[in-house]
Fold this sequence. Notes:
heterodimer; A: alpha+beta; Cytochrome-c3 Hydrogenase, chain B; three-stranded antiparallel sheet; 8 strands; B: Beta Polymerase, domain 2; four-stranded mixed sheet; 2 helices
Amino acid sequence: xxxxxxxxxxxxxxxxxxxxxxxxxxxxxxxxxxxxxxxxxxxxxxxxxxxxxxxxxxxxxxxxxxxxxxxxxxxxxxxxxxxxxxxxxxxxxxxxxxxxxxxxxxxxxxxxxxxxxxxxxxxxxxxxxxxxxxxxxxxxxxxxxxxxxxxxxxxxxxxxxxxxxxxxxxxxxxxxxxxxxxxxxxxxxxxxxxxxxxxxxxxxxxxxxxxxxxxxxxxxxxxxxxxxxxxxxxxxxxxxxxxxxxxxxxxxxxxxxxxxxxxxxxxxxxxxxxxxxxxxxxxxxxxxxxxxxxxxxxxxxxxxxxxxxxxxxxxxxxxxxxxxxxxxxxxxxxxxxxxxxxxxxxxxxxxxxxxxxxxxxxx
Amino acid sequence: xxxxxxxxxxxxxxxxxxxxxxxxxxxxxxxxxxxxxxxxxxxxxxxxxxxxxxxxxxxxxxxxxxxxxxxxxxxxxxxxxxxxxxxxxxxxxxxxxxxxxxxxxxxxxxxxxxxxxxxx
Lengths: 363, 120
């Protein structure tokens, strides 16, 4: 047995845009155990339901995260609409699905850039983020915002997209797909990239299931799990099928996200072709009582939204409890498991490939 | 996927003393732990704990209701990832869990005051 050393990893570290801490127990260069610590910036946003009425709370929930803000807003609205038994117009569901899939593209491109930066391929990092800007431009043109959109509301959406905007979006995404092909080929074919990703941090299907992994982390290990299969949005109309890989290593997780970028482009272009005319929202008024629990497939995986109004005569415009369980929360145990037995030099790659979002986790 | 599975709201009220055996049964049936959360019910000074599980993209929820000072049996022996939720509920609501496999002893979240979401 070699000498045991404990190395603190984070909360400030070059590969971590946000604070999470790992105590890495090493034996020579191998990680024997990893003990995670989070909670450095817990904001307690859920508690604000006591001060904000349920239609206003969507603005707070969107601010959980700057990457998947639209999805959080949709998840919250979905939960409240469930409590209020509201049926959202079909056109609004199409628009929500389009913005949500655009969020997935921009999230995955951001992550690919961070991954490239993590293994020292700076030009690849710059190209990924350059391409991502065009997705943010689409957000700005259709919602007015690049990070926080405030376009989702309880009962539907606030803004419609014109025929010209939709046609332009379809064309921009078609051009983007061609450009992305040359970039993603580097991730999937370059020898130096493969050396850093292939066979590293393998999570078996059995472990992914045992550790309740979610999102691309689970799908890269062969687990067929995607909340877009539960009937929310218009994924059924679009013929959605989840992207699955089976190797379970860092390369498989990268491949799942790359394939999902192209899949999201196709889903959006298909939605643009068949989006029906109609209303984009229905009025939702009155006090809220009852409870509803729902889920969204965020770019990083399954997120849970639980809304509970006060019972009986205590019903008001405020929720009694709002709960958001984010995907990173559920992937930390799987990350800890994959770290056991890896080389110290591979720790940054492993941490990056779960695509941790501490901002979400510290909602 | 022709049905809207998210509309299924199956919440089963369970005694706190039975939760571990119920969870053990669900694990044996192939359910995945999705989340655990607490809600502080100010009106009757209780806590409502919801354990959510998934099988074939359908949720099943166990619900227990406890009062201050009641320790709940940890489910980390069945689902190790539950340590995240149990430590979270301990730090925010002051709910105690017995036999938590990874107990942070109140240091999971860095909070400015202890158990800020506990019933006052």
